[in-house]
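FAQ: What does a multi-protein file look like?

Like this. Sequence, then tokens, then the next protein.
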Amino acid sequence: MPLFHYRAYTAQGDLDEGEIDARTRDEAEEMLWSRGLTPFETKAARAGGGGAGGGGLFGKSRLKSADIAAFTRDFATLEEADVPLDRALRILEEQAPSATRRQLTEEVLRRLLDGAALSDALAATSPAFGDGYISVVRAGEAMGKIGASLTQMADMLERRQELRARIQSALIYPVILIVLALVSTGIVVGVLAPAVSPIFSESGKPMPAGLSFIMGLEDQWPFILGFLVFIIGFFFWLRSYAATRPLVKLAIDRRMLDVPILGKLKVQYDTAQFARTLGAMLKAGVPLLQGLESAVQSVGNFFLREQLSGVVASVRNGGSLSRGLEQIKQLPTVVPQLIAVGEEAGQLAPMLLRIAGTFERATERSIERAMGILTPALTILIAGLVGALVLTVMNAVLGINELATQ
């Protein structure tokens, strides 16, 4: 018998979470009602050995966020045109640009034809859709507006992809500069300097101090390489160690927020992610508490996520969202103020989306300013380093000419 994972409220308003055996999701919810629980999320935890609990055919390693965004946009377009679900999926299957997209569509269609709701079919196909995605689709099913819900998700995912792409694009030029500097340095140290230094040793003349320093670097390259490997290995070890120890990760992420420029940039980015996710879910009809829980998971910084989890608990106990966010010192003060205005006007979802747009633009401007400072600084630093090495070798070559005239 299939296993369903549920989250429900008790008669006292407390959140209860667990798993229940039932033939269908409706039967699982009926069993929860009979126990005095009010279900608000019920999803397949195991479906034929390949459900959501086991990752289905599409684990997160195979299905990329770009695939999810493109699938959602195409699906939303067809649903907004009132194409039936099964017909829409068949069209997407026929026009799939890749094998991964085709297999994804086939699996969702198969589960849908087996009698599963669209939200359950998506949840059982791949964990890459996420709880927030499934909640939005489920809300669309309840209101008969699946197309509108998918459109909301497509807008959110595409905006997230766009912001991530802008950050990656901004980092390309500095990375190219660093790679070219390493290549140039390697050529000078590993090729030019060794070609010149034997002339001095054969003539019995002392080697210039600069050339001697470069040759010393070449002699010490195993130790330098070992040190670099140690630093990189330590970074990955610390990352893996922190991933299994929440307190360590909490402390590291807390310190990250204090780093100049980078800390502010991270707060802006996570604020935008939180606001856009929650705003999109509320606009799609997802209840505030459920939307909050999903929006918190979109925040990358573990410390901020823990702080926002406290806001979820405050809202669950009857507090307002703005009042809870006021307690988080790391958030910009304008965020709870604007949310309070949205709550008073009954326009919380539009206000959250407006906040998201504001901080997304602020993130882009911060990245542009940082790159505007970093790129010239790297250019000057790298030019100075490579120029100094080349001048050192050229001085040595001029010294060889002097030896030849003696």
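And here is the next protein:
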Amino acid sequence: MSLNAKLLDPEKVKKYRQENGFSQELLAKASGLSLRTIQRIEKDGKASAETQLSLAATFNISPKELFQVSSTPDVNWKWRNIMQSALALLVVGGAVFMLTVLGGGLSMFIDFYSLVYLVLFMYSGTTIAFGVQGLFKSITSLRFLFTNEIEVTPASQYLAVILSKQILFLYGGSVIGLLIGFIAIQSNMPDNSTGLRAAYAVNILVILYAALFAEGVLRPLSTKLSSSVLLN
């Protein structure tokens, strides 16, 4: 991580200065910086890489402990990364579409009610677990599918947790939907085997939708955020 990538947090600098018993003048002398530089940092957080290192050494902490904490993941958007990710998603989507066509036609794999149920179940679980703010963060995080350079921040780690839990919500919701479907089918058994097979086929679609979204979208995105943590 580049030291110049972020501004220093003025309040953190002030806090560390006070905890070490420094006035602005004493901190300037201890760090080898000018008083004006210390005053500027505590006002707007602007500091060169050398200044950041000097302050961190004076406080005996890591430089990143002085940085402002972003509420969203820091992402380096590059056109090449966007195109690569878009192409990968297109290939996956095309492969799934081809399989549905080979399996008997796209209409056999469409059930609007199952899809709406899963989406509502997943995002309701997200709201209960992480609040409305977590819900909005998870929705807006889908744009990070199109980048491969995500800076490690508490926000990116938090998002990875939300997405990993959404995978569980999806599969949990699909199992509940499947069981409800089985009960409904057994309670209203069709008079012919053709109707029975069709009912079971529609019932299984809820599992298919959960797997597609979990393994095709949420898990790759969650893995991308987790991998950025490991790499750093």
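Q: Is there any per-entry metadata?
A: Some entries carry free-text notes. For the entry above: Residues 1-5 have pLDDT under 50 and may be disordered.
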